[in-house]
UniProtKB/TrEMBL annotation:
The chain crosses the membrane at residues 59-79, 86-107, 127-146, 158-178. One of its GO terms (molecular function) is protein dimerization activity. Residues 181-218 form a coiled coil. It catalyses: ATP + protein L-histidine = ADP + protein N-phospho-L-histidine. The keyword Flavoprotein does not apply. This is histidine kinase. The lineage of its organism: Bacteria, Bacillati, Actinomycetota, Actinomycetes, Micromonosporales. It is an enzyme of class 2 (transferase). It holds the Pfam family HisKA_3. One of its GO terms (cellular component) is membrane.
Length: 410
């Protein structure tokens, strides 16, 4: 009798009730490998028995009970997922019984080896070792303990006996290896799923941060321009009858402010446009548009730039523009009629310094009254970039002083 052949279908138990969760490359969605293994074992046993009988090496007639012995083992393999121990016991009993009426041959070991391999893939190490030990002990007892009662032609030699033991041990070993591989694949799938969930959560956080940034930008745009429109509308109404030319200038400023507001809103919301839409035509918000900002401020503004102007990081440039814009908005809201302002931009080696000062303030501000939410918003924007903002009354006015790191060094 020779050892069992390599059984390619025996490696298909990668998922199932005892084989762990489904993994990539498993048989989910395909034909059940248990059916294929049973059919293969049946063909091996029927064809092997027929060939052996044709050579005169089966010593009984093929009565129904002999056919039943050849068929019952492969049929039991169909139930090995739910009842793996019973399937191994049935296949082993049928094969050993048939082996007592035929010369030693490897074909009758196919069904028991598949059942034992499956026991190993189920993770039932103790059951597989105990089952293999019991099967091998029964084999030795039958063919070596009762040699005198059996036909000499069915008795195995030492070589065949050793091969049976090696085949049983090999089936257990391969089943254990398949089990480990299945668990590793399942763990890999779990890690990949967790990584995918982490990436999705990161994308959600980034989307939330982007929405918050857009909300802040919209707050700055709308707050600035609506404040300017409100001031100019009040001026226009006040001068409508007495000074119509100045009222016309106020209306012109309102028109300019509303147009600029629409452009900036479109620019802010441009991040939400689809890939097929055209890119914005207006330059990005930054200190390069400081002259336009101060010209439309609705009050006299003096601008001064010191240091060597250079290209700033986009987030710093945009934050500087927004802080100046919010500071000028606060001047219009709180400084009172006749207020003037000055904006100083100082390019230092590693930071950008902004100073926005107004020359006339109301008593509440001079006395340290509540500045509202504008200062808090500017401070939060500066701190988000690692900068600082100080604001408070000074002689004859109110000062906002900001330091924004640029990450550069000369």
């Amino acid at each position: 009798m020779h050892g069992p052949p390599s059984l390619p279908w025996a490696h298909g138990n990668r998922a199932g009730r005892y084989g762990g969760p489904p993994v990539p490359g498993s048989f989910r969605g395909r034909r059940d490998p248990g059916v294929g293994a049973a059919v293969g074992a049946l063909l091996f046993q029927l064809i092997g028995a027929k060939n052996l009988a044709g050579e005169g090496r089966v010593f009984v007639a093929f009565t129904p009970w002999v056919w039943a012995l050849l068929i019952v083992g492969p049929v039991a393999l169909l139930f090995r997922r739910r009842h793996p121990i019973a399937a191994f016991a049935i296949t082993t009993a049928a094969s050993l019984t048939f082996a007592t009426v035929a010369e030693p041959h490897w074909f009758w070991t196919v069904a028991p080896m598949i059942a034992l391999f499956h026991l190993g893939t189920c993770g039932r190490r103790t059951a597989s070792i105990a089952g293999a030990g019991t099967a091998y002990g029964t084999y030795l007892l039958i063919f070596w303990g009762f040699r005198a009662e059996l036909d000499e032609r069915v008795l195995p030699g030492l070589r065949e006996t050793l091969l049976v033991g090696i085949a049983l041990a090999g089936a257990i070993f391969l089943g254990g290896i398949a089990r480990i591989k299945t668990e590793q694949m399942a763990q890999l799938v779990k890690v990949r799923a967790e990584r995918q969930r982490a990436e999705e959560e990161q994308q959600k956080r980034q989307a939330s941060e982007e929405r918050l940034r857009i909300a802040r930008e919209l707050h700055d745009v709308i707050g600035h321009h609506l404040s300017l429109i409100n001031v100019q509308a009040g001026v226009g109404l006040h001068l409508m009858d007495s000074r119509p030319e100045q009222a016309r200038e106020a209306l012109s400023a309102i028109k300019t402010a509303s147009s600029e507001a629409l452009r900036e809103v479109r620019s802010v919301l441009g991040a939400l446009r689809t890939e097929d839409e055209a890119a914005p035509r207006q330059p990005a918000l930054g200190l390069s548009r400081l002259d336009d900002l101060t010209a439309d401020a609705g009050l006299p503004v003096e601008t001064k730039t010191t240091g060597e102007a250079r290209t700033l990081p986009a987030e710093v440039d945009r934050a500087a523009y927004r802080i100046v814009q919010e500071a000028l908005t606060n001047v219009r809201r709180h400084a009172g009629a006749g207020a003037t302002a000055s904006v100083c931009v100082d390019y230092l080696p590693t930071v950008l310094h902004l100073a926005v000062r107004n020359t006339v303030v109301e008593a509440s501000a001079r006395d340290g009254g509540a500045p509202g939410t504008g200062i808090a918003g500017m401070r939060a924007r500066a701190q988000s970039l690692g900068g600082t903002l100080e604001a408070g009354p000074v002689d004859g006015g109110f000062l906002v002083s900001v330091l924004l790191p640029t990450g550069e060094s000369e």
